[in-house]
Amino acid sequence: MSVVLLVVGVVIGVAYIYRHIVVKGKRCTSKAKLHGKTVIVTGSNTGIGKTTAIDLARRGARVILACRCKQRGEAAMEEIRRESGSSQVVFMQLDLGSLKSIRSFAESFLKSEPRLDILINNAGICLQGQTEDGFGLMFGVNHLGHFLLTNLLLDRLKECAPSRIINVSSMAHNFGKIDFDCLNSHKALGLGTSFIRLLQIYCDSKLCNALFNHELAKRLRGTRVTCYTLHPGAISSELGRNTGLFLQIVLKPITTFFFKNTIQGCQTTLHCALQEGIEPLSGRYFSNCTVRDLFAKARDDAAAKKLWEISERLCGLV
Length: 318
Known about the structure:
By secondary structure, this protein is α/β, with parallel strands linked by helices. 50% of the residues lie in helices and 12% in strands. It has helices spanning 2-23, 47-58, 70-84, 99-112, 137-159, 180-186, 195-219, 245-258, 262-265, 267-274, 301-315, and strands at residues 38-42, 62-67, 89-93, 118-121, 163-168, 225-231, 285-287, 290-292. Strands 3-2-1-4-5-6-7-8 form an 8-stranded mixed sheet, with helices on both faces. Pfam families: adh_short (PF00106).
């Protein structure tokens, strides 16, 4: 009996350490104030996007919530205003699965807002399907939509430099690959609807984020606009809200205990957006508020350039 109690005690102790040290992670230590600055956060009506927006609003930024759903976006705007005590929080509709919506958002933003200091490409989905333009849904939303949005807003970011672009990726990019033949023939990262294919294509889209950031950094040299990509951690948020109810119920205890909450999960995003002195690290990858090395495939010059050129063509930028 005493041995069993000892084992149980050790397990509980290890779990406690994991929960409060490994899961909790580092916090953004920047004390930067953002009065007079404007920030766009995509996908900011929920999850780490919303907690990121709350923090930035508390620092005095004018925060643009770029979200697809008008009802949820406006509800989030009211909540963020209450939480932050700031009235400088604005909802603007943006559907990253629609090139028309992205162009409309950019046009409206550039007409109504004189500044853009930080662009946070946060939105992401793990869901199969197609965009209205016929792209694979995860390729279209997780990569291509942000690619077009960034390019349409780049001149304003340059005008307001020093400015930053944050591309939220994931350590899942380590398991990704880019099938350029599939992209050219099907406008998707992969085909198939099984759960394994779903996860693989999600990983592929996160690799796209890393390669986009790598190529973007090279193109931004000399502009005083810097860019960073990151792994926010395993987050207990709504990313998987489109999965089956049974799977959500089964995973809930695991995600609650072993995954970061959204406040913990937004810390690396905030670090990349706010930390002083990281400009020489433009193009780099961060995890747990620390710069990390990428595997070779995520900093492959040829693959990054090829993805950029295909993305330009698919978006109609060339």
